[in-house]
TrEMBL record:
This is DNA-binding response regulator. InterPro entries: CheY-like_superfamily (IPR011006), Sig_transdc_resp-reg_C-effctor (IPR016032), Sig_transdc_resp-reg_receiver (IPR001789), Tscrpt_reg_LuxR_C (IPR000792), WalR-like (IPR039420). Keywords: DNA-binding. SMART domains: HTH_LUXR. Transmembrane segments: none annotated. One of its GO terms (biological process) is phosphorelay signal transduction system. It comes from Micromonospora sediminimaris. It comes from the Bacteria.
Amino acid sequence: MLRVAVTDPFPLFRHGVRMALAEAGFDAESPTDLLTWARIDEPRLLLFTVRTAQDWDLLSELCQARAGTTVIAVLEDASMPASVRALNAGAAGILPRDATLPTMREVVGAAARGDSLVPTSVLRALTERQPAGEPATAAGHPSTAEREWLSLLARGDNVATVAARAGYSERMMFRLLRDLYTKIGAANRTEAMIMARDEGWV
């Protein structure tokens, strides 16, 4: 049997979501120790509200806690970068915090069946390496988005900051930067910074 949980900093919001889920046939709870709850060996579905930097860190932990636990990220900021970041962190679905009850039931119902309802625009952003509307770049040259990453690194920002700005998890950002270094022919970050300055990319 699928166990469902709802977490949110506001008790009234938690209560409202649990009542709405009960009407859809889901008996939801609100555990205090989320990681322990997520690691129990049985099918589990968690609606987890993401509002702070600490929430983003916990989201990644919850998504990696156990394969049988499905996490839906409830986003106060349901922008494209935040949506992409949540899915890259491992969330199986995203839900704006101000979503309508029918939308919430659809997203939760899909997750309970092992499916995911993701807006087409977010799906495209996840699957397209070249940002929408950006012209193709010459081989070995960074795209506009990649130049922005290099600029942030050149001014001293760390990978976590770049990831947050780009809407990716830190782990995914490390992968993207590694691919970028290979693309421009740099062996590491230091070489990439030198090349970026020499080529006028930053």
